[in-house]
Input
Amino acid sequence: MSEVITPTSRTKLRRSPGRGNFDRATIYRILDEAFVCHVGFTVDNHPFVIPTGYARVGDRLLIHGSSASRMLRALAGEAEVCVTVTLIDGLVLARSAFHHSMNYRSVVILGQATVVNGEREKLRALRAFSEHVVPGRWQEVRRPSKDELKATLILSLPLTEASAKIRTGAPVDDEADYALEVWAGVIPLRLAVGVPVDDPRLKDDVGVPRYVSNYRRD
Ligand SMILES: Cc1cc2nc3c(=O)[nH]c(=O)nc-3n(C[C@H](O)[C@H](O)[C@H](O)COP(=O)(O)OP(=O)(O)OC[C@H]3O[C@@H](n4cnc5c(N)ncnc54)[C@H](O)[C@@H]3O)c2cc1C
Output
């Protein structure tokens, strides 16, 4: 795989193209940091955008869920899909209302998904979902049964048509507005990890594992 994902007529940025980024490593870093994607597809000419979890395995993005999921069944055919992932890094407060913005890193992926078949492949994918969210978890949990595997549909989307867009830094105001006595700058934002809470039905002798007590998102 090349280090740059070649822009297509669909992924070439037209607005603020300077914020575009097609480096595979940059796109993968954003995908590996975020948890949630939004999956856009159409059913009977009606658009839907559904939030869901995902994992990246090599050059593919995996999404999964119940075999009864409308979203997954719709995409298991040859439907076109658009998946977006967004990280918010800050609120950008300009001197004018017009120039307020956000610092962000986002990815748009276009393509067609295929179904992941085979017990080994499905288990590998489920392990990737688990490890993407909480590294170390897969080692401890009960593995999916045959019936659970059967009830799970996993789709794989190639990362061949994708773009990243990144905004960083200070607000950009109209030159005349820099004279205004209005505070301007950036409120940085990040995801915070709280203190783990025991399940009320946890067995007395089960302590908090290190991968939970040491859980970090930065
Ligand atoms: C948190 C956040 C807040 C935003 N707020 C605003 C806002 O208030 N107003 C606004 O106009 N825009 C906002 N944007 C930018 C927005 O995502 C679009 O880039 C912008 O609106 C241009 O859309 P377009 O369809 O004209 O893009 P075009 O440049 O025509 O899109 C062409 C192709 O470029 C790629 N592309 C476009 N946008 C993105 C993206 N964000 N990430 C990755 N690839 C992309 C896609 O492959 C797309 O198909 C925001 C983005 C984020 C992540």
User: Anything to note?
Assistant: The chain has a mean pLDDT of 96. Helices lie at 24-33, 70-75, 119-133, 137-140, 146-150, 210-213.
